[in-house]
Amino acid sequence: MWAAQGLDGYSYAWASEDRRAVAIAGPALSSRDRLAVWGASDAAVPLVRRVLAKVGPTYRPLGDSALIDALVHGIPTLNHVGSFGWMDCTSPAGCSVPGPSRAEWLPETTLPEVETLVEASFPASYAKPGVPGVERWAGVRDDGGRLAAVGALAWSAPTVGFLAGIAVQPQTRSQGLGRQVCNFLLAEALRLHGAAALMVNDWNHAALRLYLGMGLRYRPLRAASVST
Predict the structure, then answer these.
(1) For 91-194, CATH number?
(2) pLDDT in tens, 82-104
């Protein structure tokens, strides 16, 4: 459902002739043109080949690891570009959403502080202040009043709130401030959308432990790109 957002004219969907594979093209979804793919690999390969010819080489196929492997094997112009995890929660009962914490929504006047923190602590983040699709930032301050941890809801679909841009000042890590921000955003995503999700790099073991500890479920994904 996250990838299917915007099927009102901004995103487009295709199905194979036998309906065993589906591809959805979402422009600027989490800062990239993405082509989410589901279904049987033998049906998905010709479908993705046809769709890429329509939407162009900026779109990156995204899906379950085995399916992306099959696409790369079957379409010579595709190459692997990364492995990561999709993590989600569809019920407050299945997630760790504790009581009130110091995390809160941040006013727009604090966005320069947010940008400084994200650039210093997580410069590779797709979610940054001013990036299209980034909706609202939350944060928590340390005892000295300095912004110590932030995160955002970004690129959310009507039925899935998407967490992104989680960043913590290096000197305040291991104090639980990042978890406070994550729990706040998780609760808000569930309240506003009914489900919550995020993406995490497989090498980020600390983040994986945090999100698994919060009750989010892990699903391995891969992405591919078109050689130019």
Answers:
(1) 3.40.630.30
(2) 889 999 998 777 786 666 678 99
